[in-house]
Design a protein that fits this description.
Number of strands: 15
Strand content: 15-25%
Oligomer: single chain
CATH superfamily: Creatinase/methionine aminopeptidase superfamily
CATH topology: Creatine Amidinohydrolase
Number of helices: 5
Order of helices and strands: HHEEEEEHHEEEEEEEEEEH
Helix content: 25-40%
């Protein structure tokens, strides 16, 4: 069942989504080689709780951490560990918060130190595909229009692997609601999008194969060929003429550019969206 949100509920959701964005912005300022992802997780959790919210992920389905932190070949649901970050790593930080009865859920991939142009391209194209999908999140379109836009820009155009087993989702009083929003599909297929529907669009794009497996921790999803994966996620309210993006990358990108420990060169190649 898809829950249509009132305008008042959407504004509460915007507050939750922007708190996630602020958390990721602080993470962007904090990241550097030598930090462990457990330290990053603790840092993010403290920021969330200091802002009178609850980490959505902690204890959800038994997940023991406040954030999902996925490094290099980890696609999503990565367990924070004591392994220090090193130059050349890419790290996807996925954060959820519960505030005022509604969830926000957003993810961003960062490059530690200097990374190869091949990795920069993966990050850039994955982020571009997110906005290609968002463009289709208007009332009257179908879920497949979003899915197709992401797939066409990543797997079909550039030969990347679009993960099939993991999808975007509806968002609201529950972290995961209907409809599911895959990153592959056909135009004109799937459920029709109605005004007031709030969804999380989150392309998970692999440099190589689309195939993945679960690590021995039971949670971390990794690429089958060991090549890196990138992940970006926004929260969107479906409107009649234009999607309403509830989360924001603006502060994250500013912090990313200002942190000398991060490689933000890929941002220079992203067209205005």
């Amino acid at each position: 069942m898809i829950y249509i949100k009132t305008n008042a509920e959407v504004e509460l959701m915007r507050e939750s989504a922007l708190l996630v964005s602020s958390t990721l912005c602080e993470v962007a300022r904090y990241l550097k080689p030598g930090l462990t992802t457990l330290q990053v997780d603790a840092f993010a959790e403290k920021f969330i709780r200091d802002h009178n919210a609850i980490p959505s992920f902690k204890n959800l389905y038994g997940f023991p951490f406040a954030t999902c932190i996925s490094v290099n070949d980890a696609v999503v649901h990565g367990f924070p560990t004591n392994q220090p970050l090193k130059p050349g790593d890419i790290i996807s930080v996925d954060v959820g918060v519960l505030k005022n009865g509604f969830h926000g859920d957003s993810a961003y991939t960062f490059a530690i130190g200097e990374v190869s142009q091949e990795v920069r391209d993966l990050m850039r194209i994955t982020k571009e595909s997110l906005y290609k999908g968002i463009e289709k999140a208007v009332a009257g379109n179908r879920v497949g229009d979003i899915s197709s836009a992401i797939f066409e820009h990543t797997e079909k155009k550039y030969g990347y692997g679009v993960v099939r087993e993991l999808v975007g989702h509806g968002l609201g009083r529950k972290l995961h609601e209907d409809p599911q929003v895959p990153n592959y599909g056909k135009k004109g297929s799937g459920q029709k999008l109605k005004e007031g529907t709030v969804i999380a669009i989150e392309p998970m794009i692999n440099m190589g194969t689309k195939d993945v497996y679960h690590d021995k921790d039971g949670w971390t999803v990794r690429t089958r060929d060991g090549k890196p994966s990138a992940h970006y996620e926004h929260n969107i309210c479906v409107r009649k003429n234009k999607p309403d993006v509830l989360s924001s990358f603006a502060g994250i990108e500013e912090a990313e550019k200002a942190n000398p420990e991060l490689d933000s060169a890929y941002l220079e190649l992203i067209p205005s969206l």
